[in-house]
Amino acid sequence: MNAIKPLPLAAALAITAALPAFSATVETDAGPMEITEVVDGLDMPWGVDFLPDGGFLVTEIAGTLWHYDGEGNRVEVSGAPEVVAQGQGGLLDVAVARDFAESREIFLTYAKAQDGGAGTALMVARLNEAGDGLTGGRVLFEMADGGNTTHHYGSRVVEAEDGNLFVTIGDRGKAELAQDLGKHNGTVVRIARDGNVPEGNPFVGQDGALPEIWTYGHRNPQGAAIDASGQLWTVEHGAKGGDEINRIEAGTNYGWPEISYGTNYNGSRIGVGSEAEGMAQPEFFWDPSIAPSGMAVLSGTGTAWDGRIVVGSLKFDSLHVLDPADWSEEVISSSETARVRDVAQAPDGSVWFISEDRGAIYRMAPTE
């Protein structure tokens, strides 16, 4: 997901007017919030992002890309990439380019077929004027040798203010490779909009290192967001405990599988423990695990939540609102927060989230 972008008032009102009648109210530290169903009837939705005309795009893991216009009408978008829809793989994240009004470009991450298996890949394409087809699609990046496992793809994509793209990649179930700079497993990569390696990547020219790598030592980062200052954050799954929120800094080793605040599923210690020289500590961790997925860093909400990080939980059917000033945590749980796969902030300041189990997208905003 990208940082919040201005949206004409008429377009924001069009989204609100198109919402179905269902709603519920939850009490929060920022006051009462109304949760309203935006759309339902989705099959394993994974990612959502917003178009400047009031519409939005949604991915389903089996390979379908949907376009909803500002009136709530939807159409399947042709031209999405062929995906390997096995296990945790398929059509995953979607991000709308910051300059979409001029370029009409969108970015999609997915599990791409490779010799012997599949790997996390990033595609760019242009959404046609009718909104029902992609043109000029091409692969900007694919991980080297993803292997034959079917889990830990990572796969969020965010665009920085300078136009460069960050993509998260899981360790693909091969933990030791997250410490190998010659592999993309367990990394955050940074690439330019044209697919080249941008200036400033920290491992360019280092013997044996892949030049796209920005950070390494990650397990399975399924959430990523850029805050109002331009800082990149990720949230990633631990094993049995040890889910992490990390402040992403170029060239940093985040430790997996040498350090973790969790344990292996059999209860044994991971690596050398929770700390090691040269490996970064998480900003925040959960134990027991909440199984975190999408995340957003809020701004422009007009509430006490500005600057806070919202993370969805797949395990506990909840939203977690964290204050980076002191890492205090608020947990929001309702029937709508069932297995939250993605969290995004809409251009009108509201918080949207995907409930994978309910096949629905919800909008949360202060009650009027």
Q: What string, H for helix and E for strand, traces the elements in order?
A: HEEEEEEEHEEEEEEEEEEEEEEEEEE
Q: Given the C-alpha coordinates, what overall shape results?
A: globular
Share of helix, binned: under 10%
State the end-to-end distance. 27 Å
Strand proportion: 35-45%
Mean pLDDT across residues: 94
> Would you tell me the structural class of the helices and strands?
mainly beta
Query: Radius of gyration, Cα only, in angstroms?
Result: 19 Å
Q: Count up the helices.
A: 2
Would you identify the regions where 5 or more consecutive residues have pLDDT less than 50? 1-17
- The spatial strand order of the largest sheet comes to 1-2-25-24-23
Kindly state the number of beta strands.
25
Largest sheet: 5 strands, antiparallel
What does this structure look like?
The chain is mostly beta strands and 368 residues long. Helices cover 4% and strands 38% of the residues. The protein has 2 helices and 25 strands. Strands 1-2-25-24-23 form a 5-stranded antiparallel sheet, with no helix packed on it. Strand 16 (232-236) and strand 17 (243-247) form a beta hairpin. The longest helix is centred in the N-terminal third of the chain and has 10 residues, at 9-18. It is globular. The two termini are 27 Å apart.
SSE inventory with pairings:
Layout: H1 9-18, E1 23-26, E2 33-39, E3 45-50, E4 56-60, E5 65-68, E6 74-76, E7 91-96, H2 100-103, E8 105-114, E9 117-127, E10 134-142, E11 157-159, E12 165-169, E13 187-191, E14 213-216, E15 221-226, E16 232-236, E17 243-247, E18 284-286, E19 292-297, E20 309-313, E21 318-323, E22 328-332, E23 340-345, E24 351-355, E25 360-366
Antiparallel strand pairs: 1-2, 2-25, 3-4, 4-5, 5-6, 7-8, 8-9, 9-10, 11-12, 12-13, 13-14, 15-16, 16-17, 17-18, 19-20, 20-21, 21-22, 23-24, 24-25
